[in-house]
Amino acid sequence: MKNHLKWTLVFLLLGIIAYLFSPSIKRLLAADSYLSARIALMYLSGSLGIILMSAAVLISARFSFINNLFGGLDKAYEVHKSTAALGFAFGLIHFLMSFSNRLMIKFNVIPEPAHSTNPLTGAVLSFYKAGYAYLEPAFILLIIIVCIAVIKKVPYHIFKYTHKIIPILYLQIALHAFTVPFRGGWVDTIGGYILQGMIIFGVIGAIFSLFNLTGIKHRYKGMLLLKEKISNDIIHIKVKFHNNTNFNFFPGQFVFLKFAYSLEPHPFSVAGYNKDTAELEFFIKECGDFTSNMYNKLQENSNVLVEGPYGQFTFNDNKNNQIWVAGGIGITPFLAKLSSLKDNKAASNIDFIYSKIGDSPFDEKLKVLCEKAGVNLHLVDSKKDGLLTYDKIKTITPNITSASIWFCGPLGFRKSIYNGLKADNINTSLFHFDNFSFR
């Protein structure tokens, strides 16, 4: 089972456990129709929804211990997306059930429910009412933002800016979810502790996101030292830290860069780090919403905010054989690793396959670095040799069954390799990659 699905099921199970150890389960089991069970079912959909949403919001705060738990920031974001999607689905069910119940009550189809076992007074009643104050418009706005997120044709910057509203909406929904158990008799039960505990964690994550505190312990100030074009669509830049900071970098990791002209940081793989000069090196392809026409927007000597490093694509394992596969600009993390090996040859037997279209600006650099590092380089030109496929990789590297595979390249290419490994019953846990799809 994929890592993000496994963790999503863990949080789903946590929600189920919370419900099983609450008074609502007894009411549901005692019900003899939907009309008598509807309040208990609303507690079920609501508790599952808010626990999954809380997990998603907490993960988005980029706490290091959470990133490490999930296998790196990119893997944590996969869990974030899946828990957010499932949490929203349960929240939508809860919202629709509430709306339909109100309609049935309005038209005298059903009586006003007597679901409260604990009449509320004082401050608790005030908080309870506040939880309902803007609940409906908050969820309707959340529905709109989710639609923007899933429609890929909507530009990334619109997705990013609308997504920043979610912590505010979550806080309103969380207030409602935190106070409802006081009426439903969940307080001082195991289910209540789990539910309200997860909400508290989610609120912490929302506050970090709302006040731009995500990754605050991993931020460093620098300047754009160099920008140059090495091909029609590839930019080479260097960023120098203002101070020789304690930047704990491992080759293969990535960082978020916020340039002077941009409002939001974006992730980029590090192609090299010189600790002595405190300089980071990057190769960036101008191909997306943010990177389009990037060269003309960048200004040398302008400020750059660096956040990171992140990721566990660090080539560290106990395998004697490693296979590196890069496609196009996916070469960048391998350049960082090769640079670190140039004075100290690799202990493992490494085959590096680089797929390119025609001549690449990296060809000569790769030959020199691989020779110094003792890495076996295989250049595959798709113009001359055809597309690099999983079967071709097996031909180039017959030891694939005993090797770990480190991949960086297009998503379709990655999926084809993954499916090939599964078809050959090769352990896919040895297939390593970073996923930069944060949307």
Q: How would you portray this structure in words?
A:
With 439 residues, the protein is α/β, with parallel strands linked by helices. 50% of the residues lie in helices and 18% in strands. A seven-stranded antiparallel beta sheet has the order 4-3-7-1-2-6-5. Strands 10-9-8-11-12 form a five-stranded parallel beta sheet, with helices on both faces. It is elongated.
Write the layout of secondary structure elements.
Layout: H1 3-20, H2 23-30, H3 34-59, H4 64-70, H5 73-106, H6 122-133, H7 135-150, H8 156-163, H9 166-184, H10 190-210, E1 219-229, E2 234-241, E3 254-259, E4 266-269, E5 272-274, E6 279-285, H11 294-297, E7 303-310, E8 321-327, H12 332-341, E9 349-356, H13 363-373, E10 376-381, H14 382-385, H15 390-396, E11 403-408, H16 411-423, E12 431-433
Parallel strand pairs: 8-9, 8-11, 9-10, 11-12
Antiparallel strand pairs: 1-2, 1-7, 2-6, 3-4, 3-7, 5-6
Helix pairs in contact: 1-3, 1-5, 1-10, 2-3, 3-5, 3-9, 3-10, 4-5, 6-9, 7-8, 7-9, 9-10, 12-13
Shape: elongated
CATH-derived architecture of the largest domain = Up-down Bundle
Mean model confidence by pLDDT: 91
Evaluate the radius of gyration: 26 Å
CATH class of the largest domain: Mainly Alpha
CATH topology of the largest domain: Four Helix Bundle (Hemerythrin (Met), subunit A)
Percentage of residues in helical conformation: 40-55%
